[in-house]
Each structure stands twice: as structure tokens, then as C-alpha cells.
Amino acid sequence: MDYELPVKRKADDDDDPQNSTMWPAPPRQRLLRPAKRPCLRHPNDLEDIGIVPGPNADPGPASGSLLQLRKAPAIPIDASSSHIASHTPPISRTTLKELDLEAIMRNPQLRHDLLFDGNLQFRPTSTRRKTERAEKYWEAVTTELETGCTCVSFDVRGKPHPTVCACAHVSTPAVHPVVAYSPTLHVATLRTPSRIRPLLDEFLEVLLLVIQPLSAGASPSQTAVQQTEHLAQAAYIRSLFDPALIEQELKHKLFDPSSLFRAIGVTLQGHCAPMRDQAVDLMVQLAQTCAPGGVGTKADAVKAVRMCLDILELMKLASCLSLCRDIANHQLQTLRPFLIRTSGQFELRSFKTRKNAQGFQKTRQWLAAAHSSLLARTEPIVYHPNHLDYHTLQRNQQVYLATLKGLTDLIFTHPSAAHLISLPVSASQGSLPTISSQPGHPETTYLDTARLLLLSVDAVDLVAQYMFLLLFRQLRLSNKTSAADDSELSRIKCEIRDIGSARPGYALYCTGSAASQVDADELDKWRSLKQSVVLQIAMRAGGAGATTVDEGVLSLAQRWADENIQHGSALEGMLRNRLRDAVFHAVVARTYPGRESAGVGSGLANLNTGAASAPFAPLMTGLETLDQEIAALAESIARLALIHINTYLGVYENENFLEAEEGQEQR
């Protein structure tokens, strides 16, 4: 700041003779100014009284902190925020228990998925959320080892903020986090308990858990020998791995991980498969670099611990799969039929435990809507070799067909654009994403939420293919060329699928209200795919030898596609209903009758063992080109329907779902 010097006053006894008098001038009266009221300094006003830093130093005092320990305002800090690293490692005894065979067999979702895929394999889950939380945890451990800081900061709105360290003012809490507030920066800092000791304790227990022997299939004498060897190994590992001692050595920077990890590596190689030896060697080599005089850092030591826990998780999974493989090899003829035979009772018991409070309200509405739709049909249900008149069927047969109709209608209900983005293009039954129950789905389909959504996306793709093929036919006719033959239609169908990145259904979500659910970049990509497909169709409409596109034909094709190939258009609704009926007839051909043949359970077993499909119902004109896609979708729906009916058909009959609905209509 620039300062100005005050104006110099002349002395009262001026030496100028012209101005001198005999009498001194009367004294001036000083103006009395009101005294300035003292300013109350607020307690949160801080003065930087630290040493002035050099020109290249960071701003602020060279020592001390701007952080004050005062009562913080109410800041909405979510303890489960992903910004706060977990206190326990991502691989622990709790997570490994999920890989136990008994836990798997008690898991309704896993047993249900096993009915769809006999070769289902269980792998460690690696969702993006889980990966991000694991990375956050290991970053926090590395930071604590390097700096001792366990702080994480939030602004006054509870949003993440760059860390403002409070370690100089807050000691490390033992159990619960401590909040410190900086009124100058308006930042709340949460200092969490140390993660080092819990990591060491859990690391040791996981190591001992994984190397313990499996008793399944072993004789009592072999089991006793294995237990004795395990106790000796456990005692040896505990003698080397003392969490309390290691914690103290880390605090005093005396810990040498190389010898400990050499011993752990030898132990792991004695228990794991040879395919893990390379990973174990890399872990030991990385720990060796952290020995005194080595080039390794504390981050490398943390990486070695992380590598070891990853190996232990894979070893635990391998032991579980080995046990499952032994069971599959020796008891395949009894285990699979047992799971199929008991799946209905097990899933129904699990459903009643889970959904007892909600009941069957949505299920009643869903089944009643399917029943009303079948009653309103004027034409019989196409069924080889005869036709089925729904009005003349017995009540249990009507319930059976209403369930098939309800599941088919559910799948031909448009999924949201968000689900179209999140669901994979192709997923096996064992790799379906985890999705919460949807608002419009009946309660009894809670184990099939992801499967139903994936089939709905397949149905959307089928509708889009149907509309593109219809556009191709109309362009050929308007071009006054010969009608397209089956080979041309098959070729253009493959080209539509290839250009559309195996998801031609994107074209239905490029305009209208559905487009508002998609971000701009994704929407531009979908529109580009749609335009590319229309361009290819316009070129093929000129004939087999056409190499250029007629501008008039292309303009006509684009206008037709923009008007019709979109979710909610009249033509889209009509074609979707036509496809839905064709798929429903194909599902009926594969699953009906259930009760009058060998029984629902027998049909379920035959379907899951790859039995030949039932005769396919004839298709309407224009759908012949899509017969393979319709058959594949119907096969998937039929499999799902048989498993669903095997569990809930008795409930739908005993609870009098249809009678209750008819009684309400009569009143």
C-alpha cells in the first residue's frame, strides 16, 4: 500500500516580518472529533502473525495453521459418502464369506441365476463403484503412511473440498472421527481413526482364513493331518506377523517388509495353483524393493499388501470353485435335479420373507391386466396344431396363459433411455448387472429385474429392425423396382445390425420426450447411427448393383424415418404390438401345456437341458425375415416363464387373483 506524508503546518511564530505582531495570535481551538467506538473483534477473525515467507513460498504463515477448533455449524456430512475412504480394507473376512459355498447356496439370486445358466461361475465383483471405493481406500492408506494425515474436508454444504489438514490440532481419534471447523476457510475437516492397525489385523486374519484346509471329500484321518499342518503354519505366520509390533515399527520408520513377504510368498505358493506363482513372485519382488537401502517407497509397500489381498481373494474363490467342481463331477446327476426340484419352494420362501409387508398388489394388477387382454381377444390364440379359445379354457389354464401373456407384455414395455445406456449390448445370464426393482414390475419378478430389462432392450431392437426393413420394402416399391427377395432382406438385416452397433433400438430414442433423458454427446451418436442406417437403406433400395444414392430417395427415407422411427409414433406402436403377438404365440408354442404333460418341473428341466423347441407358430406376412430373432427372444421368454410359473403358479391359483379382479369389475 502507498502511504502519503502529512502536509507540513506553519509554526505559529512565523519568521516573516510582514506577518509578525507584538502579541501572539490567540491559540487555535482544536476541533473535537467524536471518539471512534472500539471495534469488537470477532473470535473467528484471524491474523497472520507467522513468519513472512520467501517470494517462492506458498501464501500463509510459515508455521501454525489457519484452522480453529471451534464449534462448527451444522454441516450435512454423509458418513457413507464415497469421498470418505472406508475404515476397513476392501477385501476382508466379511467379503470372503460371500464366496463360501454355503453362502452361495443360501443366496436366492445366485440360485435363481443358476437355473438359467448351468455353467454359471462366481467371480469377485468389480463394479465401478466398488473399484472407486477400493482406490479411495488404498490412497488413504498410502497418504497416512507417508504423512500421517487421515483428514478429509467438506465445505459448508457438505460437498467434497480439497483437504485442509487438522492433524496439528486434532490428535488421531481412537474410534470415532473428530470434526474440526475452519471459520476463515468455511471448511469442516473430518479426522478419521487410523487405518493402519485395522488393515494389519484384517490382513493377518484373511491370510489365515484362506490357507486353512478344505474338509469336503476328505477322510477323517486326512482332515486331522491337514488341521495339524494348518495350526503349525498359523503359529509360524503369527510369530512373524505381529500387527502391534509392525504398527510401532511403521511409526518409527523401522519396518522392513521384505522378510515378512518372503515368508508369506512361500506359504501362498504352497497353497495356491501354479498359475498364481508369477503374481506371488511379483508381490515378493515389490516388497524386496522396500528393504533398507532399496528404491521402494511406502506406496510400493502398500501396493504389495494390496497385491497380496487380491491373490488371497482369488485363492478363496478358487477353493470354492474347486469344491463346486468336485460336487459337479461326482454329484452332477443329483445336484442339478435337486436344485431344479426345490427351486420353487426355496424362491417362494425367500419371496415371502422379503415381500411379506408389500404383498401382491402390483402382481394382482399385472396378472389381471393380462387376463383382461386375453378376454378381449376376438381371435383365438395360435397354437400348433390347434387354436386355443381363452374363454373356454379352465381356470388354471387361464392363469397359466395369463402369466405368459403378462411376462411378454412386460418385456414389450419400452425401457427408459437410461436403461438402454446402462445395460450391456450382450450379457450372459451369469453376468447381468445389478438393478433395483422397477416401479411397474410385479413383486414376484424381483429376481428377474435385470433379465426382464435386458429382454426389453432386445425387444426394442427387434421393433427397430422391423421398421427399418419396412422402410426398405417401401423404398423398393416406390422406386418401381422388383420386390426384394429373401436374400436381399437377410443381407440388409445384417447390415442394419452391423451399422447400428448391434443396438438398432437407439434409433427410437433420438427424438421426442425419450431424447430428453440422454446427454447431448450420446444423443448425437445415436442420431448419427440412425442416419447411417437410413443412408445404407436408401442406397440398397436402388437395386443390388447400385453404388450411389439418389438424393430424392434419401430425402424421402429421412423424412419417413424422422416421422415414424421414434418411440410413441402410431406406426411404431402398431408394429410393436404385431411383434408382441408373434412372440407371445411362439412362447405359448414352447411352454403350453404345462400341467397336462409331464408337469411344470419336468418342462423346466427339459428346457434347461437344451431340449428341442416346440413347433413354431406361423408368422404374419412381413415377419418372415425376423423369424430367427423372434425365435431367440421367444426362447428366452419361455425359459424365464417356466421358471417363474414353477414358483408362483400355485400362488396365483390359490390366492384367487383373477376371481378378485372379476369381483371388483362386477361391483
From TrEMBL:
Which InterPro entries does UniProt cross-reference here? Tcp11 (IPR008862)
- Entry-linked Pfam families: Tcp11
Identify the stretch(es) annotated as Disordered. Answer: 1-34
- Output compositional bias ranges, type Basic and acidic residues: 1-12
One GO BP annotation is: protein kinase A signaling
Task: Spell out the family assignment given in the record's similarity comment.
Answer: Belongs to the TCP11 family.
Name of this chain's protein = Vacuolar ATP synthase subunit B
Q: Which organism is it from?
A: Mycena chlorophos (Agaric fungus)
